[in-house]
Structure formats: structure tokens, C-alpha cells
Amino acid sequence: MTTLVTGASGFLGSHVARKLVAAGEPVRVLMRPSSTNRAVADLSLEYVTGDLRDPSSLDRALAGVQYCFHVAADYRLWARKSREIYDSNVGGTKNILEAAKRAKLEKFIYTSTVATIAVDRPELPTEATDARLEEMIGHYKRSKWMAEQEVLKAAREGLPVVVAMPTTPVGPGDWKPTPTGKIILDFLNGKMPGYVQTGLNFIGAEECAEGHLLVAENGKVGERYLLGAENLTLKGLLDVLARITGLPSPSLKIPHGVALGVAYVNTAFSRLIGKEPQIPVEGVKIAQHTMFVDCSRAQRELSFQPGPVSAALERAVRWYVDNGYVKTRRAKKMLRAAA
After folding, report:
1. Residue 221 belongs to a domain with what CATH number?
2. Which end of the chain is more exposed for a tag (fewer CB within 10 A), N or C?
3. pTM for the predicted model, two decimal places
């Protein structure tokens, strides 16, 4: 039974591919010509060159496939051309859904995001939370909300779709790195003088990938399953990293208004010099809302048992250090603290 994975060159997608190979499944991956396979180069995989925006390449990729894990997404909090995010996340998802219908798959597992339901409510949001497009902040969130609507529509029309909703994965293998990985790296490299009051739900990337396999095996068609572990404030996350590394946790709490002003200035300057901003406006706006959620459904219904986030952060720190993402003097300081 051949399984297709999209996004295997990325952080979470590479872990999904790795888990499938470890389970003995023949795995095919779809990769753009410009992508690198360094995250999965050690795995025995079948490669198909293509693009979510090219329907004919999707038909080739899905030929003879029974299961598809559509993990690929354009996860950026800033883009010079925001249309690119919608073309990949919405247009690309619509294309692969149509190709999946033609291929008559047994199961289509779509990787959504906690962002489509993590909105302000009196109670902690769950899979049953009905969020609206106007509650989505920024192009990434809006595009993923729109894509999820297309997926749920396809499920109502008969496509055997189940939705996995990762919270915030952390761990080894974040090559790019992701926006969350950049926060961890800023801490490790001493580039985080303060913090804003916000919070997220975190999960180990490897465990989130394992959760995808449980969604495929036991999830109900047309249903959504949050894959998360622990709700942590940003300050709480930094304190955990401080305990792991021996580096000091920032104590300066920065008001959201100040952070937003700095982000606007940084973004304007970055546009002038043609670089990605260090502090995206969209990221600061998102941080004004705490994204805590209730992830108990997957634990009850899928027997999903994520481990402690502190252990995942330890694996992430070790990987960043081993792969040269941390300045030498900071890495040495961490070693001295651990001695």
C-alpha cells in the first residue's frame, strides 16, 4: 500500500514520512524542483517531482496511492507577495483534493492547524469551535482557514478525509526554521531581550507525526483532531529553555503596543532593503491573543499520548546546537552550565 506525503522536505512533513517508513509503509513524496531532501535524505523513499499548483503532477504523484498525507503548507508570517501563500495553501489544497477524487483514495489526511479554531472564547477552544474567517489574523491563518473549508466540503461530498490539527510542533529537524523555531533560536543566540504576554499549545514534532498516523488509522471521516500537548505562555516556554540550557530567561515584559510599533518599523525597513523582517507585524498581532486549546479529544478517541514538551525542547536545543544554528560562544556557555 503506497502512501503519498506532501511537504516531506519541511519540518512536520519530514517527521510524518519518517514515522511511516519506520512503520514499514512504502512512501512516495512529492517535491518541487527547488526543494531539498536533506530532512529525509536518509530514508528509503520514492520521489515524484511536482507542485501543488500543477494538477498534472498531482495525478502522477497519486497514481496507485491508497493513502495521502497532505502536510505541505506555506507557513510564513510575512511574504513579499501574499498571493503566494493563498496559491499554495488554498489553491494547492483544492488541486490535490480534485486529484484525490480522481485517484479514488482510501483515506486523505489533511494537516490543518490549531490556528483555525484558536480564537477568543469563554471556554478553551476545541475541534467543535466554529471560528469565522474574520477572526483569522494574517494571510497564513486566513489561507489555512479557507483551505480547511475546502477539505471539509470535500468530506461532505464523499471524499474520505480526516483532518489533523497540529498545535505548535517543536523538536529536531527544523531546518528552515519555522517561526516557532526562530523564537527558540533567538533565545539560544541571545537575541531576545524581552517577551510579550501570550501563549500557545506546544507538542513534540515526532509525537505530532505519530498522531497523524493515529488520525489516519482511527479518525472518523469528516472530523477534526487537535494534536497538542501542553498550554504554555511564552514566558513559560522561555523559562523551560532556561532550565534546559542554563542561559538566563528574559525578565522584561514588553507591552503589545510597543512590540507592534517596533514590528512596523522593522517591517518597513526590511522592505526597503529587500529582506524578511526579524519581527513580522503579523506575528505580533497574533501574539495579542493567547492560543490555548483543549486537546483531550485525540487522547480519548485515538489513544494519543504525547510526552512532555520539556523533553521535545531538549531534543530541539540539542539538534540546533549539533547543526550549527547556535553561536559558538553561546553553545560553550550552555556546556559550561550543564557541567
Report:
1. 3.40.50.720
2. C
3. 0.93
